[in-house]
Design brief:
The structure holds 2 protein chains of 2 kinds. Chain A is α/β, with parallel strands linked by helices. Chain A contains 6 helices and 11 strands. Chain A has one domain (2-210): HUPs (Rossmann fold, 3-Layer(aba) Sandwich), CATH 3.40.50. A 9-stranded mixed β-sheet of chain A has the order 9-8-7-10-6-1-4-5-11, with helices on both faces. The longest helix of chain A has 17 residues, at 38-54. Chain B has 3 domains: 7-120, Orthogonal Bundle (Butyryl-Coa Dehydrogenase, subunit A, domain 1), CATH 1.10.540.10; 122-230, Butyryl-CoA Dehydrogenase, subunit A, domain 2; 232-379, Butyryl-CoA Dehydrogenase, subunit A, domain 3 (Up-down Bundle), CATH 1.20.140. Chain A binds chain B through residues 17, 35, 69-70, 73-74, 77, 188-192, 194-195, 197-199, and chain B through 6-8, 10-12, 14-15, 18-19, 47-50, 53, 57, 62-64, 266.
């Protein structure tokens, strides 16, 4: 089973103080910590689990700048066999559509059974790369996969839908799956694996070899929404307040 | 001179930080209250290869250098100082002397179980009447045929309640002074070896700190580490190395205190603005950050000397340990100050950091002992 995993280095913004930069179209990244995109770590772990079961090899690919090398090496330390960086120095010019096109150019000539990607990049939150890449490669895909069972030529993929429903799909290989967080428990890289991965050769390909890519959408503005003044103060004794609060939560469909 | 970390050091730092934040942080406050030794965490640490960081791969270690050891101990101590010293002891106070002074049989027998988490190590130097004055120890080991008869009591032993493999110092020839001190590998299940008082500590409360009691314990002759009379040398050499870890532990605790202080000072408002905009708070934050960075570089420098193969670095090692301990206490005290009354409660972790930091000025040589080591070298 030959598996390709597409991963991305992203700033960790969940608990950080995020500020819009002077261009008004991006965030200030100087003080942010970067790491592998969360759902990509689950995609990689799923690949490693499948390799442990069926054998084969894993190739991780990223489209990124020099700092992305660390992301690739961590992936090698966690079980990937080969790593490819498609060199892009100006990450600002990339969007999901362009990234998918670049990945397509290199993957179309590779021998693979499965492609795993994360379901969503936490920086731009487009969920675009996986599905667009599948379309460009003209292979079937399933998104937001929470469980996958492989056999020789096909896969049983499970997707969680709204309303507590689970969808079971039978998909012919080769195919692409975008992986949801929680599908497995990603492992840590052991120190020995880190030491070996740090010395491993990375394959690097210049993006310019693929010619010009086009974007189909452009960021106009990035901003913090104005703070809403609409706040309702609930008054009364604790029983009355909790009754009102429960009513509001129910009305909004949260319970 | 190179101030940058290598690829593998950067990756180690990132991965150990992720591991510590996810696996160790959720339990840190709980084990501080309960004082329970974190055995489950030890298994995970061993799977990562953190119980044998500096041990060669042929003995099941991770074969990293001493700067990497410092980085790992800092990252672990940043979330849990108890776990930081548990790992430090297993690496520097137990695995290191076996690696450095043990024969091939001893290395093959004792190092792999310590690295893979099957066994935990502890070291016995301190006694009820011998702390800073190591040579005043009273424990004795008398050769009797194919074994030594070990008698004595060791006090304040980190990892004591959980350990299986102990590196213990005792006099084989009391009349020869410190040159009559020897070092032994003692296994937990030997007859006559029991655990005494379990210490109820102010900080690093989950480290299984206890007393070791040896009553006519028959230690096989082949468990002598080095030669008879090598004990003091092994002890001093080991402490030079282990002070890298304790310095790194101080940097980790202090960094955690600074991180919490920055976060809190941005949230807490007084006189109409976040307290981080008050000059007095800024003054404290600036001092804290500068001292932490200075201590970190001192610690890395000692690691660099050891990695480079420099034989004697007692002065530098004492400087790193003394300074890191000093600033850890200072920085954590300031962190409590920045948090005000809330810093004095268990709702915030800075009170734990303050208590944890205090041990750094006491164990593995008090700050006064470190200054003696430094000054003696200056005026010799």
């Amino acid at each position: 089973m030959n598996i390709i995993v597409c991963i991305k280095r992203v700033p960790q913004t969940a608990e950080a103080e995020v500020k819009v930069d002077s261009s008004g179209k991006d965030i200030e990244k100087d003080r942010l910590i970067f790491d592998t995109n969360e759902s990509d770590t689950y995609a990689l772990e799923e690949a490693v689990l499948q390799k442990e079961k069926f054998g084969g090899s894993i190739t991780v690919i990223t489209v990124g700048d020099e700092d992305s090398e660390e992301t690739l090496r961590i992936a090698l330390a966690k079980g990937a066999d080969e790593a490819i960086r498609i060199k892009v120095e100006d990450l600002d010019e990339l969007d999901g559509f362009k990234t998918a096109q670049i990945l397509h150019k290199i993957i179309k000539d590779m021998d693979f059974d499965i492609i795993f990607t994360g379901c969503l990049a936490t920086d731009d939150a487009y969920s675009q790369v996986g599905t667009t890449l599948a379309k460009l490669l003209e292979i079937p895909h399933a998104s937001l996969v929470t469980k996958i069972e492989l056999s020789e030529n096909s896969a049983d993929a499970y997707r969680e839908l709204e309303g507590g429903l689970l969808e079971h799909l039978k998909i012919k290989l080769p195919a692409l799956f975008t992986i949801q967080t929680g599908i497995n428990v990603p492992r840590y890289a052991s120190l020995i694996a880190i030491r070996r991965a740090a010395r491993k050769e990375l394959n690097e390909i210049s993006k310019t070899e693929f010619g010009e890519m086009k974007s189909n959408s452009f960021i106009e503005e990035l901003f913090t929404p104005p703070v809403s003044k609409l706040a309702e103060i609930l008054s009364g004794n604790p029983d009355e307040v909790s009754e009102k609060l429960t009513g509001i939560i129910k009305e909004k469909g949260l319970i | 001179m190179n101030f940058g970390l290598t690829n593998d050091q950067k990756m180690l730092q990132k991965e150990v930080r992720n591991f510590a934040e996810t696996e160790l942080k959720p339990l840190a406050s709980e084990i501080d209250v309960s004082g329970e030794f974190p055995s489950e965490n030890i298994k995970k640490l061993a799977e990562m290869g953190l119980m044998g960081i500096i041990v060669p791969e042929k003995y099941s270690g991770s074969e990293f250098d001493f700067i990497s050891l410092a980085i790992a101990i800092e990252e672990i101590s940043r979330v849990c100082a108890s776990t930081g010293v548990i790992v430090a002891v297993n690496n520097s106070l137990v695995s290191y002397p076996i690696l450095q002074f043990g024969n091939e049989e001893q290395k093959q027998k004792y190092l792999p179980p310590l690295c893979i988490g099957e066994k935990i190590g502890a070291m016995g130097i301190t006694e009820p009447n011998a702390g800073s004055d190591v040579a005043a120890m009273e424990a004795t080991a008398k050769l009797n045929g194919d074994h030594y008869i070990l008698n004595g009591t060791k006090r304040f032993i980190t990892n004591g309640t959980a350990a299986d493999t102990f590196v213990v110092f005792a006099y084989t020839d009391k009349d020869a002074g410190y040159k009559g001190m020897s070092c032994f590998i003692v296994e937990r299940d030997l007859e006559g070896f029991s655990l005494g008082k379990h210490e109820d500590l102010m900080g690093i409360r989950a480290t299984g700190n206890c007393e070791l009691i040896f009553e006519d314990v028959k230690v096989p002759k082949e468990n002598l580490l080095g030669k008879e009379g090598d004990g003091f040398k092994i002890c001093m050499n080991t402490l030079d190395v282990s002070r890298i870890d304790i310095g790194a532990q101080g940097v980790g605790i202090a960094q955690a205190a600074l991180d919490e202080s920055i976060k809190y000072s941005k949230e807490r408002k007084t006189f109409g603005k976040p307290i981080c905009h008050h000059e007095m708070i800024q003054n404290m934050l600036a001092e804290m950050a500068t001292k932490i960075q200075a201590a970190r570089l001192l610690v890395y420098y000692v690691g660099y000397l050891k990695d480079k193969g420099v034989k004697r670095f007692s002065k530098e090692s004492a400087m790193a340990k003394y300074y890191a301990a000093d600033i850890a206490v200072d920085v954590t005290r300031k962190a409590v100050q920045i948090h005000g009354g809330y810093g004095y409660t268990k709702d915030y972790p800075v009170e734990r950091f303050y208590r944890d930091a205090r041990i750094l000025e006491l164990y593995e040589g008090t700050s006064e002992i470190q200054k003696i080591v430094i000054a003696r070298d200056l005026v010799k």
